[in-house]
């Protein structure tokens, strides 16, 4: 096996929270997605149920092959060539997610806090750190998540306390203005952006616990969505949907408004800290999954030799895949990214699951 | 061994070589405390005037800095361009230091520029990360913004501090509607609610040697339709608006004592609720205003602290508030036909179904909506005297 390390259940929960939450602390694109009005937070809330449903294929497969990752059992189910193709698809997907994370990290930095620094500086630094984390293995990434994610959550809570006096809940009215259907559609979109079931699919054999692994996924996604809803409500009730729609980084704008008794102000630097830590974790997770998958596809003894090539691939993808932020947001819009994610989270696992059931019956 | 050497090398170099690419050194910055935006009517160019502190003059110490020294603690820089950003960057041609907006406190917009529309002038304020929220927005009445920015004041060596102080102290009278840029932009982004901003004037000018010393006055409000300035609210009307939107913080209400002398009541607390109601198919707006005050001063010789007189004063206080609100409603609904109070949003929030029907006709419906006022007032205390101070 390419990985000997084990992570604990609580680390797994933190990995899920970190992976789901961090992008939304800066790129809150949801306000322009359906329902695109003050009901966005209800969509986010309802997406919890859909997220749990989306876990099912991966979960059932993992229960069937508890000591294998999705790349290993797809080779069992699809044969050697088919399995390798699916495995490579997943490897590409993970590297791509990591590259997107790295790019968005740099994109925010060059847009707001450090506009004069070239993008590539941020990309290289983050890729280096993520590569080192991946080199250190699952246990180290798990332990990093134990530090980073609670810190992130605490800072988000502190920020929430600071904006309490500005909340105007009238801005959340009227509820269900466009009816229930757009809200449900929005919930599905929000759920389609959660690729965390794949964390379960890849890390299932390495979680050091018997049972309760799916339950810990549900817990993790629940906490992440609770925070997302809190953030949505803060943005909608302080800034309002009309202006949030116009903003690239509504949450950052929210932070910049904070002025507490003329003493606490300019707290957006806190956000920068969260953003850096969270992105290191997220980029490292998917970097690691990518190289682990690559090692498994080619039955390598260790994934360490492929770290440098994978790092180069991530860097190049991050640098050249999108010529500018507009095209990137086009890709990250709900239709494209939703379909792309669901293909990997639901599509392939469902086919594998059908095959597995078929095999058993025969 | 080599590994250890490399580690040590890396750690040492982290200490000595770290730094920021986009760093800003204080001695290379021109710190802008206020800037004004005008529009050249003929060419359509945007003119921006910066009010920049001189660090050396300002750090000259309290003793000699304020004592009427002619050495000004600020300098102004004016530049023009096709857009605001263009003008700002062209200003850099005249400055040896990088123009830095992170400590900007006030944006002043000239009357003519505001009539042309403030949207294009403020796009940058939302887009550029260096311009921060919490900046006051003023509209200069009868002057260009450059006049305000360049003016010298007796109150401080840097007039931008004066402007900032005026805005912070506007709560004492509530005769001026001050607003931060982020809230102003939010009102612009609203489909129905009209934006307002504070009005800055030069109240007095006097010559002192070669210099002209001015006194600023911040009062009233500038009101907008979409992003274009369409008129002004005077002091009483402004407070009427602030009563409705619940932003009155303090101020003096003048009522009459039984012997027809003026009595001042100090406002302690005010709040409001806007409630749209539909009764028998007709739309009403009901505004609930609560206000509490103290007896502040009295020109009368009567003892005002009897229950009967107190309730009479209270009734007059209610009337004064009602008059101020009615005056503002009249001007907003009939004269300018702009929704300064967020009636449209209140209807949208509480009657979403009915809102869909009237949304498109809102501009015609708004001036005709009847408004009911429910004002609850109270006079709490009478200060440190029971009977009036008087000569006997």
Structural account:
The complex is a heterodimer of chains A (362) and B (392). Chain A has helices at 9-21, 40-64, 70-111, 119-136, 138-163, 180-192, 197-203, 213-238, 241-244, 250-257, 268-297, 307-320, 325-332, 334-361; strands at 259-260, 264-265. In chain A, 72% of the residues lie in helices and 1% in strands. A two-stranded antiparallel ribbon of chain A has the order 1-2. In chain A, strand 1 (259-260) and strand 2 (264-265) form a beta hairpin. With 362 residues, chain A is mainly α. Chain B has 392 residues and is an alpha/beta fold. Chain B has helices at 2-17, 55-58, 62-65, 84-91, 111-116, 119-127, 145-150, 159-169, 181-189, 235-245, 307-336, 343-350, 352-358, 362-365, and strands spanning 29-39, 46-53, 74-81, 98-100, 106-110, 136-140, 152-153, 196-208, 211-225, 228-233, 252-256, 262-279, 282-298, 371-379. In chain B, the strands form 2 sheets. In chain B, strands 1, 2, 3, 4, 5, 6, 7, 8, 9 and 10 form a 10-stranded mixed beta sheet that branches. In chain B, strands 11-12-13-14 form a 4-stranded mixed beta sheet, with helices on both faces. In chain B, strand 1 and strand 2 form a beta hairpin. Chain B is globular, with a radius of gyration of 26 Å. The termini of chain B are far apart.
Topology:
The complex is a heterodimer of chains A (362) and B (392).
Chain A lengths: L8 H13 L18 H25 L5 H42 L7 H18 L1 H26 L16 H13 L4 H7 L9 H26 L2 H4 L5 H8 L1 E2 L3 E2 L2 H30 L9 H14 L4 H8 L1 H28 L1
Antiparallel strand pairs in A: 1-2
Helix pairs in contact in A: 1-5, 1-8, 2-6, 2-7, 2-8, 2-14, 3-4, 3-11, 3-12, 3-14, 4-11, 4-12, 5-8, 5-11, 11-12
Chain B lengths: L1 H16 L11 E11 L6 E8 L1 H4 L3 H4 L8 E8 L2 H8 L6 E3 L5 E5 H6 L2 H9 L8 E5 L4 H6 L1 E2 L5 H11 L11 H9 L6 E13 L2 E15 L2 E6 L1 H11 L6 E5 L5 E18 L2 E17 L8 H30 L6 H8 L1 H7 L3 H4 L5 E9 L13
Parallel strand pairs in B: 1-4, 1-5, 5-6, 6-8, 7-9, 13-14
Antiparallel strand pairs in B: 1-2, 2-3, 8-9, 9-10, 11-12, 12-13
Helix pairs in contact in B: 6-9, 10-11, 12-13
């Amino acid at each position: 096996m390419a990985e000997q390390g084990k992570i604990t259940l609580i680390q797994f929960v933190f990995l899920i929270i970190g992976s789901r939450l961090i992008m939304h602390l800066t790129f809150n694109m949801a306000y322009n997605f359906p329902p695109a009005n003050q009901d966005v937070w209800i969509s986010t809330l309802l997406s919890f149920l859909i997220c749990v449903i989306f876990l099912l294929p991966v979960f059932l497969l993992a229960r069937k092959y508890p000591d294998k990752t999705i790349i290993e059992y797809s080779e069992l189910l699809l044969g050697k060539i088919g399995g390798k193709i699916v495995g490579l698809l997943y490897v590409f997907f993970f590297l791509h997610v990591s590259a997107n994370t790295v790019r968005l990290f740099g994109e925010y930095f060059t847009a707001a806090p450090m506009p004069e620094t070239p993008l590539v500086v941020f990309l290289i630094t983050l890729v280096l750190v993520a590569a080192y984390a991946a080199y250190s293995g699952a246990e180290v990434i798990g332990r990093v998540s134990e530090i980073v994610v609670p810190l992130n959550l605490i800072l988000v809570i502190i920020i929430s306390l600071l904006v309490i006096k500005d909340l105007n809940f009238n801005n959340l009215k009227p509820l269900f203005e466009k009816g229930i259907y757009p809200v449900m559609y929005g919930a599905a979109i929000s759920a389609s952006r959660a690729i965390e079931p794949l964390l379960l699919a890849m890390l299932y054999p390495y979680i050091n616990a018997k049972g309760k692994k799916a339950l810990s996924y549900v817990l993790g996604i629940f906490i992440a969505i609770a925070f997302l809803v809190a953030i949505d409500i803060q943005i909608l009730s302080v800034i309002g949907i009309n202006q949030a729609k116009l903003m690239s980084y509504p949450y950052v704008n929210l932070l910049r408004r904070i002025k507490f008794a003329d003493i606490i102000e300019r707290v957006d630097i806190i956000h920068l800290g969260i953003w850096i830590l969270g992105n290191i974790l997220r980029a490292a997770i998917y970097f690691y999954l990518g190289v682990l998958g690559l090692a498994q596809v080619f039955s390598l003894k260790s994934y360490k030799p492929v770290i440098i090539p994978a790092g180069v691939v991530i860097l190049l993808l991050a640098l050249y895949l999108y010529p500018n932020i507009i095209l990137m947001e086009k890709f990250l819009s709900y239709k494209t990214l939703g379909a792309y994610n669901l293909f990997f989270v639901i599509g392939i696992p469902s086919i594998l699951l059908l095959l597995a059931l078929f095999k058993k019956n025969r | 061994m080599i590994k250890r050497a490399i580690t040590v090398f890396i750690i040492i170099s982290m200490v000595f070589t770290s730094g920021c690419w986009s760093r800003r050194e204080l001695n290379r910055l021109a710190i802008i405390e206020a800037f004004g935006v005008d529009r050249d009517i003929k060419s359509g160019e945007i003119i921006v005037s910066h009010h920049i502190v001189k660090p050396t003059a300002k750090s000259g110490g309290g003793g000699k800095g304020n004592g009427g020294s002619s050495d000004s603690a600020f300098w102004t820089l004016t530049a023009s361009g096709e857009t605001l950003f263009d003008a700002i960057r062209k200003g850099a041609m005249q400055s040896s230091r990088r123009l830095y907006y992170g400590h900007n406190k006030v944006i002043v917009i000239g009357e003519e520029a505001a009539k042309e529309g403030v949207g294009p002038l403020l796009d940058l304020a939302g887009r550029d990360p260096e311009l921060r929220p919490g900046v006051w927005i003023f509209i200069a009445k009868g002057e260009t913004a450059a006049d305000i920015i360049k003016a010298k004041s007796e109150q401080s060596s840097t007039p931008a501090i004066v402007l900032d102080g005026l805005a912070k102290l506007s709560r004492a009278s509530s005769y001026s509607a001050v607003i931060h840029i982020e809230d102003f932009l939010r009102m612009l982004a609203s489909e129905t609610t009209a934006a307002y901003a504070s009005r800055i004037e030069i109240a007095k000018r006097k010559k002192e040697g070669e210099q002209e010393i001015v006194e600023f006055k911040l009062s009233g409000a500038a009101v907008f339709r979409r992003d274009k300035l369409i008129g002004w609210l005077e002091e009483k009307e402004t407070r009427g608006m602030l009563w409705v939107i619940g932003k009155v913080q303090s101020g003096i209400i003048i009522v009459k004592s039984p012997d027809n002398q003026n009595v001042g009541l100090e406002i302690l607390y005010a709040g409001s609720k806007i409630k749209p109601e539909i009764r028998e198919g007709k739309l009403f707006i009901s505004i609930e205003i609560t206000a509490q005050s103290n007896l502040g001063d009295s020109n009368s010789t009567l003892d005002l602290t009897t229950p009967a007189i107190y309730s009479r004063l209270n009734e007059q206080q209610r009337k004064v508030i009602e008059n101020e609100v009615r005056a503002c409603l009249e001007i907003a609904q009939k004269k300018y036909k702009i929704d300064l109070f967020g009636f449209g949003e209140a209807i949208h929030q509480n009657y979403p179904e009915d809102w869909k029907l009237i949304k498109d006709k809102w501009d015609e419906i708004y001036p005709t909506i009847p408004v009911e006022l429910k004002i609850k007032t109270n006079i709490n205390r009478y200060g440190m005297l029971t009977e009036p101070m008087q000569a006997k």
